[in-house]
Amino acid sequence: MDVIDPKVLEMARKTYGENCELVRRTEWSYSFKCGPKSYCSISRFLAEKGFEVSATEIRRRWPSMNQTERVDFASNFHRKETWTPNDTEILETIMQDGDDRIWSCCSLAMLRHPDRSRAVEFLMERIRQTDSERPPLNYMQALGLAGDRRAVAVIRPYYDKLRKTTESEDLMNVPDDVFRGSIPYHAFLAIAGDLFRIEGSSEYDQTVRKYFDHPNEQVRWWAEHALGVEGPTTAKRNAEYREKNRQADRPSESP
Fold it and tell me: Which strands make up the sheet holding 38-43, listed edge to edge?
C-alpha cells in the first residue's frame, strides 16, 4: 500500500470518518475506503500544502495524457484553496482541449476563471451541445452558482420536461427505487434549485418545497438540499452522521 503523510490521513478521517484507510494514490489524488461500501477521494492540491504544477508542464503533457489521466487531473487541480494566473492558464488548456467527461468533472472550476462571462458562455454551450439523454447536471449546478440570468434559456427546457414526468407520480405512485425509477426526482429538484439560485422566483421555491413532505426520505433530502435548507430530514441525517463519528472516535474496550 502507498505511504501516506499522517496529516493527509487525519484530514480524510476527520472529514469522512475514522474508518478511512488509503487504498490508492495517484499523481493528483488520494482514494480511501471508509466503510464496506463507502469510498472517498481527496485532491493532493487540497491535502498537501504547497502542492503545485506549472501550466507549462500541463500544456506539454496534456496531449499525451489518456482519458483517465486527464479526468484525474481535471477533477482535482482546481480544489486548491488559492487561485493564481497559472491556474487560469491550466484551466484554459482544459477548456480548449477536452470533452464532456473532462469538462463535467471540473465544471465548478469554470467559476474560478477571472472572466466570468466567458465561463458562463462556455458552460451554456456545453449544455447546448450535449447529446446525452441525461440532463447535464454538473454544468447546470455551476450556472446556478454563477447566478447569470442568461443561463435560464438553456436550463428551463429541462425543468419543463422533467416537471411533466414528475407529475406522473399522481398516477404511477412512488417507485420502489427513487434513484433509478421512472420518476427523475433528483434531476428535477436539482434543476429547480439551480433556477431558484439564478432567478429567486417563488415558482421554483414552491415547487421544491412541495417535496419536503414526500413519503420517501431520500426525495425529501434531495428537496432540502436543492434549496440549501437544513430541514427535518437533513438535520436527522447530520445528527446520525455526527453520532456515527462520535462512536468511531471512542476507544475500544479491552476484553
Answer: 21-25, 29-35, 38-43
